[in-house]
Amino acid sequence: MIEQIKELYFRHKEVINYLIVGGMTTLVSLLTYYGLVLTVLDPENPVQLQAATVISWIAAVSFAYVTNRKFVFESKRTDIKKEAASFVAARIGTLLMEMALMFLMVSVMHINDKIAKLVVQVLIIIANYVLSKLFVFRS
User: Would you say 97 and 124 are in contact if contact means Cβ atoms under 8 Å apart?
Assistant: First the structure.
């Protein structure tokens, strides 16, 4: 049984590690976002809603770059500045996607911001994997 689990893990190592790291990154994002909107920022105010989203994004991207580079894609590239810039550029694209979706869901559709944040995070995890795989950490 353990051998089967190990074999399954190694066959799908990158995706499994990405899901683990993505979950941890999402946790960093959510804890930062919820910490801000429950203490100092008002999600009913569109500007403060976006500020909370951007700050949580910065915390998550910082965590995600290091963990994706080391544990998911096991990057050996020596041009770390270029790789990091590509990573940040891809994440800026998904940040804009996240901001638009949060605005649409919370400010236009009046969905609870905490529920909207969870839904949006699923879409962002998928988009981030695809962009990282195709454009940032490609071999």
Answer: yes
Name the residue among 35, 135, 49 with its Cα closest to residue 91.
Answer: 135
> 79 phi and psi, to 5 degrees?
-85, 70
**Which of these, 63, 59, 71, lies nearest to 19 by C-alpha position?**
71
pTM: 0.74
For 62-77, the pLDDT digits (tens) are 999 999 999 999 999 9
Residue 84 and residue 132: Cα distance in Å, rounded? 11
Residue 139 has pLDDT above 70, yes or no: no
CB-based contacts of 122: which residues, under 8 Å, 6+ apart? none
Provide, for the chain, the percentages of residues in helix, strand and coil under a 3-state DSSP scheme, each rounded to the nearest 5. 85, 0, 15
Q: Residue 34 has which token pair?
A: 């919820």
Strand positions, DSSP E, 41-111: none
Task: Give me the residue label for tokens 């770059």.
Answer: 65
Contacts of 35 (CB under 8 A, 6+ apart): none
Which residue has 């429950």 as its token pair? Answer: 38
26's tokens:
């999402």
Give the amino acid at 62. S
